[in-house]
Amino acid sequence: MAVSYYISARLGLMIPFIGSYITLIWLPTGIAVALLLRWGYCVLPGIFIGAFATSYSMGAPLLVCASIALGNSLAPLSTAFILRRINFHNSLNRVQDILFLFAAAATGMLLSASGGVLTLVTFDKLPLQNAGMAWVSWWAGDFVGVLLASPILLNISLPKLKNLSRQLLEFFCWASVALGLSWVVFFLNHGHNHTLPLLFIISPLIVWSAMRFGLLGSSLGLLLPVILAAIATSNELGPFSYDTKYGLFLLWLFVLVLVLINLMVAALQAGQMHANFALQQSELKLRSIIETEPECVELLSKDSTILQINPAGLRLFGTDHPDKLIGQQALTLINPQHRQNFISLTNRIFEGESGQLEYEITGLNGEQRWMEIHAEPLRNEFRTIVSMLGIGRDITERKKIEEAQRIAAVAFETQDGIMISDANGNIMRVNQAFQNITGYNSEEVIGQNPRMFQSGRHDLEL
């Protein structure tokens, strides 16, 4: 942590803005925030050592070094603490995470800017009349540094680097174009207000990189125009150099807009990919459930055309081949005496109701079967009914049992008296003829033993 902070700090100090201590962009703070979030608070001593060594290498007194290092340690610490408390996702795959990062960085950097400027003024390293501009520059440099460096380090990983390496040629071409355009904008055209519109040509490049290379690749690529803009401005070149205060404000605004575009597009892209993946998983799970469902599941259009049907439905209609049913009208498979009822059911479904129907079908194999269907309207995202969802089951065996029971009931009511008893001889049921012959009604004999009918006047042989 100390080494990475020191190296990035020395590179940043190569483009100073006010004195030797304040630069336009301070990436070490962004590195510190990212590593605190990834590795925890154990890196805090490294941050302090790196910040102390940076100030010491510039010839600052020990008290100045310690005071500046303290502020530069507390600022990323407070930022990381805030982000941890508000359920911040390091992957920055939600729009709210970008807002969290902006708010936490803006708040945390108040400590480093206030502590640093106060230290420089106290030890006569900065004139008091320059304190206001110095404070704004310090705060903005740290704030922009967090927004530039943190997304890279929070998302860097071996799989993502491997994925980016597969796009190395495309990334190199993009970087070359971005570098060339940035050079034209910031070094070949400077000091004129009418060159500011040229800045807009960089925005499409940032959008393209965010869509093509993801957050890691686009954040790396974003450093190119931002660093060139900072170098040009510190050397009084480029469109931001014609007015110190106004130009500096526009530079930071330009960087913030690019960062926001990059993070927003990358987050929306990641969110869309996550949503698509979740949708695919949901569809696979639903398809798996439907495919293994033992009952018939089918989708029908208003004219009864079969749109989809599961394997259980195929077997019910006498085939194993979906192409023999999908696109065909289910009405042709329904026996004629039930078709009108099925049409009525379909009309009700497409009017927004639900319904249930029993009907007889003739399968493709010529076998006749009874089917019971429960139907519901299926709507799209605009709440428009697009099809009928039917869940049916084979009730042929039930119908056979019901028919057998009906026949038995008819046969039971004959002119002859019939009594049915269980294995223990207790009477379970008698027909009307039995009641007429014996003079007992069913309530009097059910549960009794047939011995109740013995008169006692006959022996066992009779």
Strand order of the largest sheet: 4-3-7-6-5
In the residues, how many domains can be counted?
A: 4
Give the topology string: H per helix, E per strand. Answer: HEEHHHHHHHHHEEHHEEEHEEHH
- Counted by DSSP, the helix tally is 15
| CATH topology description of the largest domain | Arp2/3 complex 21 kDa subunit ARPC3
Helix amount: 55-70%
Indicate the radius of gyration in whole angstroms.
41 Å
- What is the CATH class of the largest domain? Mainly Alpha
Question: How far apart lie the N and C ends?
Answer: 113 Å
Largest sheet data: 5 strands, antiparallel
Q: Output the structural class.
A: alpha+beta
- Per CATH, the architecture of the largest domain is Orthogonal Bundle
Instruction: Give the low-pLDDT segments.
Output: none
Rough outline: elongated
